[in-house]
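Holo prediction. Input below; ligand is magnesium ion.
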Amino acid sequence: MPAFAAVRVNAFHAYRIVFNKYNKSKNLMKLLIYTDLDDSLLDHETYSFRESKPALDIIRERKIPLIFVTSKTRTEVEQLQNEMGFSDPFIVENGAAVYFPLDYMGFSINNGSRQQGYTVIRLGAEYAGIRRFVESVKDRFKICGFGDMEPGYISKVAGLSEGQAIMAKQREFSEPFVIKDESLMSKLVDMAESEGFKITRGGRFFHLTGNSQDKGRAIKITTEIYSENMNEKFISIGIGDSPNDISMLKRVNIPVLIPHADGSYEDLHVNHLRRALLPGSKGWNQIMIEILSHTFQEHLYE
Ligand SMILES: [Mg+2]
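Structure of the complex:
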């Protein structure tokens, strides 16, 4: 075995000893983990989650719900869940909708509609209306949305494969876009607001969404569904990197900021914010291991 592989195995073995100890604790807290994907759980350039595997294994083993909260589409999330081996609820398109798998842990959900294997709680606007707005302003503001881009072009600007770009185009509630001249953005924001939409900033793109959605609102609803159905109080962890994650980080008990690929941090004002030391899946893994190893210590949440 090469030396570096031995180090990785030994490090993981050490994590396992620590977690087996906590697993035996009767006071283990009920956790919910909400995580952004792009540039948080997934690396910026490669979209790889490889470095987060030790933490993912522990989360899976401890059966802690891992809820993706992302600007990605349902199709993209389903593929990632399959690859990572998780089947928990998820939140798509910047808080536009919460998808609970049908019969998830026997939950009863009153305010959702049934759709293709899920109970869906929708907060976002219809994509057709979003596109109508894009069409009406795209020449004046020189913006270009995913609906205007061929998969080949999306794959180039987003660093996705062409298959992934096709899934990224399957939008239901929101439109990622680029703008040629950012000085026009404040005028565009005003115009979007006057039409019932809003604009948020993600890692690579701006996102046009309905104005009554955000990641924070979606996770509040999700946490309430868990609490009501399990008759438990949960401690929530939220992890993100960008301005579109602020509403989520403000709603959780343990907010975590992941640095950008260049090591800088987004300037977010969130109380009790913890900072991961490294970008992407490596930073995600490190901070998650650290938090999970301390979840038995009540003072963390006071
Ligand atoms: Mg992100």
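Residues 1-11, 21-27, 297-302 have pLDDT under 50 and may be disordered. That is the main takeaway for now.
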